Here is the input.
Amino acid sequence: MTTVLTAGLGLKPQHYDAALASRADGLWFEVHPENYMVAGGPRLAWLEAIRTRHAISLHGVALSLAADAEPDPAHLTRLAGLVRRIEPALVSEHLAWSAWRGAYYPDLLPFPRTGEALARIADNVSRAQDALGRRIAIENPAHYLRLDGHAWDEIDFLYELARRTGCGLLLDVNNVYVGARNLGYAAEAYIDAFPGCLVMEIHLAGHTPDPNLGEALLVDSHDAPVAPEVWALYERVIRRIGARPTLIERDDNLPEFAELFAERERAAAMLRAPLAAAA
Amino acid sequence: MAVPAPGALARFQDGFTSALLAPGAAVAPEIAALAAQPAFAVYRNTVMKGCIDALQANYPAVARLVGEEWFRAAAVIYVHEAPPAVPMLLDYGAAFADFLARFEPAAELPYLPGVARLDRLWTEAHGAPTEDVLDPAAVAGLAPEVLAATVLRPRAATRWAWFADAPVYTIWSRNRGNGVPEAELEWQAEGAFLVRPRDAVEWMPLDAAGCAFLDACAAGSTLAAAAEAALAVQGDADLARLMSTLLAAGAFSRMSHIAERRIQPSRNDRA
Here is the structure.
């Protein structure tokens, strides 16, 4: 029997007990696989325990698919091992790079969307999907910099990447909002143009104004509740494309589990709404 | 629009990473223009914060001893010296104790590198492969001559260290978890023993004889040779008590007997 995934939560060690005990229709949990790449011990044991009760999504940050290099074979092997062990419902990565020439940069770094980049990333996504033996979802990034040299619009780029590799997409609504505010484009237009049939998962997160530049620069900080504008964009997209597994993503300034669960409940209620409307 | 030259992406990434960690570095004009945008600081800050947060999470006793401000200032220098090579940040900072040992501002805290070593040993024990614990009863039933020729193998999650110059174990354990840093401190040499018998890392003090004993076990010595090594550093060591304490704590994974090797080399030869 498979359960339809509804709204999920990022899983943090502080919330292991509450996560294990929580019950809700279609509830699931997402982790960064890099935090579970250990030989043994309590972290893996916890993830496996939660896996016995809830679906898990592995959301990678380190395949560095947009680097002009193949994914690190050792890292891909570790990820494949974790996928076999956990049997996640979803596996996703980013349209970004984070490893370069033997160093790891804990961030999701930008690049010019050129034909060269597209060819490289398509090759990397295919390698990853072959190694993992499954389809992965690629997430649209948050933007801060005005970067010259884009030959491709981002949505066209993602669509073409999916066409070449068969990958799906992860729509991060907060990234859309943050990028639109920082670079001055219309978030609604981006959301409306995003290819709904490719969306395997949606992310909702909080952002904060940059400490120095204030509202002129929003940072995708994952340390605050989801903003009203992001909820509105979310409603807009699920009305158009229908329900998708939706994650409340929180990594910093972590509140009580109940507070995150309340945000999760709000997303779950909205996911029921488009279905009710269609019925 | 002009077709970008092959390798443009690689050149972009070379320039971008230079600008990330070394703000003054000489980079190509297009990268310099990017790095001049105020928003470039978001990437610089996120990368640096990610590394520092990981280091602070992995060295909680050090951070508690020196305070957050001192720790994070030292961490910036460490990150520049030894940025992460792999994305498993749970394991980041393997060289931090060595860094602190030669870090000038830490010179007045001579116990600090030792405290960092114990934080590191905790991390190693926490993520070590899960193995069975050798049942103490299996050892208790052995005849003395068999026991002398027995080799006990420390588990992957067993760690120990001897600190000849400072009460590093006491300082560390008082700053780890819910310790009491204010209590009176006797300045003496100390050893530490950490183990993860099941899901949690546990620790206790270990004397010089205990550390020498475990060193010998890890090197594959028989219990007779390990006992000799322990007595060599501490003549009055209570070996029976040491053995039972280590066995009860779950220090060992399995045992083997090598006495028969000289007579029947084929059967139990583990070489």
About this structure: Residues 257-278 of chain A form the longest helix (22 residues). The longest strand of chain A covers residues 103-109. The mean pLDDT of chain A is 95.
